[in-house]
Amino acid sequence: MASPRLGPGSRGLLSAPLLLLLPLLLLLLLLVGPRTAAGHGGKYSREKNEPELPPKRESGGEFRMEKLNQLWEKAQRLQLSPVKLSELHADLKMQERDEFAWKKLKAEGLDEDGEKQAKLTRNLSVILAKYGLDGRKDARAVSSNSLSDATEDDSLEDPRLEKLWHKAKTSGKFSSEELDKLWREFQHHQEKVREYHVLLETLSRTEEIQENVISPFDTSRIKEDVLHSKHAELKDRLRGINQGYDRLRRVSHRGYGTQAEFEEPRVIDLWDLAKSANFTEKELESFREELKHFEAKIEKHNHYQKQLEISHQKLKHVESFGDREHVSRNKEKYAMLEEKTKELGYKVKKHLQDLSGRISRARHNEL
Fold it and tell me: Which residue range or ranges hold the Alpha-2-macroglobulin RAP C-terminal domain (predicted)?
């Protein structure tokens, strides 16, 4: 039987639906086609010609600022002692706090001359030099795995300090506890001298850069104000160093006696500065009471630093000879002490900054 032939009318009925589907097919080809081609990774594809994005840092870093996390990781690779690491952690926390405060000021247009930003840079330079993170091979910055205030390591960089320390040790005027206290004062003074030299070098570099910068605007007045502020800071630090040396010389010759107001070097410095600032008698007495609280906070921090070092030594011993459960218990105790020491270190530095700020404001009011 012959198959039926389709007439012209039948072809018209079939082509109508195809004509309706044709735009949809073209749209699908346009959408799918480029993706399919790119998926093959041809040399002209987006993936081949756009740079890859750097992997994002995993959450849970020690700090919110990437550059501070990098410094923290570098310090851990340097194998600083636990006490030094806890001190660095507190310094970086303070740096982070100050940088976020500066960003808020900048957003409000309150650092037009850039002085606060420059001070942040100087402070970071001091931290880098203090902990040996500035790339220089300076053995002084990297401590061994022992408490840095131990009197056995009685090396001082300044020959004058060496002479005073030797005189004090052999004078017979100091008990062993007083010698420990005096040694902390010597170390504190030496740290102030180092920070002064770092600031001096940073300032010299900054001035050299500014002299070579060509600006279309007349910024000479702003630069002059900024440099004056920087030099004033250096002058204040140098005055503090000279006062500190005079005090060490007096104590080394005479001994402590019975009239010692405070024990801790940082508190002694603050009290000497406060007595020469423009405080009323009532304000000075209030400041004295606050210094007593501050000294108690420092002593508590010192206690935890010593406990942290002891725990670190014990953990190393247990890891060599102890069982897994014993190691686990010691790790937990060490982690707890580490966090507590970091927390107290930050509180001490923040309190020190607040007290120093009050003295500085009183001095400016005097002027």
Answer: 156-367
Whether residues 273 and 357 share a domain: the answer is yes
Residues 211 and 113 in one domain: no
Residue 157 and residue 255 in one domain = yes
Is residue 142 included in any domain, yes or no? no
Report how far residue 314's alpha carbon sits from residue 332's, in angstroms, rounded to the nearest whole number.
12
**Residues of the chain where predicted confidence (pLDDT) is lower than 70:** 1-60, 136-154, 206-230, 258-260, 364-367
Identify whether residues 266 and 354 lie together within a single domain: yes
Q: Do residues 189 and 265 touch, judged by C-beta distance below 8 A? A: yes
Out of 226, 260, 294, a domain closes at: 260
Show the domain range for 301.
262-366
Q: How far is Cα 241 from Cα 247, in angstroms, rounded to an integer?
A: 10
Q: Do 350 and 267 reside in the same domain of the chain? A: yes
Closest CA to 364 of 237, 236, 256, 213: 236
pLDDT tens digit string along 113-166?
778 888 888 889 889 988 888 876 544 444 433 344 444 455 788 888 898 999
Displacement of CA 125 from its chain's centroid (Å): 10
Read off φ and ψ for residue 240, nearest 5 degrees.
Answer: -65, -40
In total, how many domains does the chain have?
Answer: 3
Where does a domain end: 100, 131, 162?
131
For 245-259, the pLDDT digits (tens) are 888 888 888 888 766
